[in-house]
Amino acid sequence: MPDINLCQICGEAAPPVDGHSGEIIGYRLLRDQWSDSPSFLDGNLHFSCLERSEEREAFHAEFVHLVQAGHEEISGLEKSHPPLTRMGLSMFPVFSGDECDIFQSGKADRWMLVRKTGPWFGFGLAQLRAIGSDEIPVSASEVTRYRLPVDLGDEVGTYGLSDLLEALGVAHRYADTTELARVEYRFTDYYAPKNLIDYVALAPLPFPEEARTFLAAHAKTYTPVTFDEEDA
User: In this structure, is the dihedral angle defined by the CA atoms of residues 195, 29, 68 and 85, taken in order, positive or negative?
Assistant: First the structure.
């Protein structure tokens, strides 16, 4: 079984950082374009690896379909296997440009930006309002738990993001030192017996200019989702 904590393309460590790497969870039933045998993608991807991959167009097409699909029946991995039920994100397109597409949820204040070259990231009302105010939007301040492929010792708590990626030998998969320095990285915990690191990485989100222009206008007219008391 492939290690889900490693990039499913290059096989190297891939700590999630919005805009630079992401995770596809197995239950999404997205077909693994990089597997030698029929399987579903389950694990992390470096966006730099995705953009260079010969499989990026096939991945992009299926990912965009998943973003827009609701509950749907798909074929199993083998002809003899029964069909499976896949749950998409049920988003609808609100923008299509030369570099990216943007999809919006009809049930929550959530959007998904998908680059034509494959990379994606989700964002919410806080990021939309930041763009509407001509500010730089950053990713949500959520704690990420990641299992390191090696034990980096207690000093891992003193590392910045660049130090962590250098220690794992994957800094070149992310960005240059100057760009990584713009990510507000905060270590929160490390459980050595299982090499589990917890961290927060507030990353400036790389919205293409065409997306920023659209979203700045969108922010002025968008009405946040509200729920009736009976739905709360």
Answer: negative
Tokens 């200019």 sit on residue? 209
How many angstroms separate the CA atoms of 81 and 76, rounded? Answer: 5
> How much is the pLDDT for 227?
62
Low-confidence ranges of the chain (pLDDT < 50): 229-232
DSSP code of residue 203: P
Radius of gyration of the chain (CA): 19
Contact criterion met (CB below 8 Å) for 49 and 173: yes
What whole-number distance in Å separates Cα of residue 5 and Cα of residue 231?
37
Distance CA 105, CA 90 (A): 7
- 6 near 21, Cβ under 8 Å? no
What 3-state class would DSSP assign to 38? coil
